[in-house]
Request: fold
Amino acid sequence: MTKYKTWKYWLEEWIKPVLYALIIAFFIRTFVAQPFKIPTSSMVPTFKPGDRIFVNKFVYGTKIPFTDINIMKLKEPERGDIIVFTSPVESKKYLVKRLIGKPGDTVEIKNQHIRINGKPIEEPLVLKRNLYYNRGEYGKAGHPITVPRGFYYTLGDNSLNSVDSRYWGFVPAKNIAGKVFLIHWPLKRIRVIK
Reply:
């Protein structure tokens, strides 16, 4: 076998397929879906530590890499969505929390329940069922706060064991990576998240 045939063989049989696979994987992870692992109990009972999830990256608009430019936006984040975002206080850390307050909403935790714009929250039902506790600078009893434009207010479902918007404030819209849509591991916990 000549050197030319050897190089051509490696190029056609190994290098090109691996390169194509890497490009496709990069495209999917950047624009479509990304896996994450749940590290803490802040979202119990929805997620348990060790659960592995997939995040829909295009539903709120996918960012062009190395920019803050969003493309392909299908909808705005909604109250009750479980979102993944980069932490407002640790830029390299991803967090998973439930979206509670949208831009312009006045949020208050009163008697362990959420009030939006002065009214008890009715929908989605998960927010009505969960108990939330007054803690942190942005979750004090008797101190409703208004979510600024371009920001969101998030809480962990396990309010007693969650460091969330009550402590560090609001999540910039540009920090949102996407919406959780699936637990894919462990096998006995596989399910679609609505």
User: Anything to note?
Assistant: The mean pLDDT is 90.
